[in-house]
Write a structure and sequence with these properties.
This protein has helices spanning 2-21, 52-55, 85-95, 127-147; strands at residues 25-31, 35-36, 39-40, 42-50, 60-66, 71-82, 103-106, 115-124. The protein contains 4 helices and 8 strands.
């Protein structure tokens, strides 16, 4: 088991180096593991910051590396809020045609209309596909940053 963990950690280190070399990635930090049931399903969990200087917390994306060699990408650790209809429509427009699903949660008991937007995990089978999805997420988040009112 120790040998398997050692080999797995070598692979993870290689993936992290590749992530850090991506043009849009500013920062990669290991996050606490997510537990499902009695055991860890996810081997490693990371917070990847996309273009932090421009996007700040909007660019925080969750990346997962699984023991079976697959990967996951999501944006639910740090969701964002939308307060107007036009911005909500634009968020949907900017993610239209991407592989991502949007979770829209209406916040009740406020004097204003507010929705919390998060993106559930998508599992992918290769690191190259993960890179492509990170690029697509980066493009969509930059469009939201330019055209929407969010917090």
């Amino acid at each position: 088991m120790r040998r398997m963990d050692k080999e797995f950690n070598k692979k993870v280190a290689g993936y992290i180096d590749k992530l850090k070399k991506m043009e849009q990635v500013t920062y990669v930090e290991e996050a606490p593991l997510i537990k499902k049931g009695k055991r860890n399903i996810i081997a490693k969990s990371f917070i990847v910051e996309l273009d932090y200087d421009q996007l700040c917390l909007m660019g925080s994306v969750d990346v997962f590396i699984y023991y079976d060699g697959s990967f996951g990408i999501a944006k639910y650790g740090i969701p964002f809020g939308i307060n107007d209809l036009r911005s909500l429509q634009d968020v949907i427009k900017f993610f239209y045609g991407t592989p991502f699903h949007l979770n829209l949660e209406k916040v009740n008991n406020l004097d204003i209309v507010r929705y919390i937007v998060s993106i559930p995990e998508i599992k992918v089978s290769s690191f190259r596909l993960l890179e492509i999805y990170i690029e697509q997420m980066n493009i969509s988040l930059h469009e939201i940053d330019k055209h929407c009112h969010y917090d």
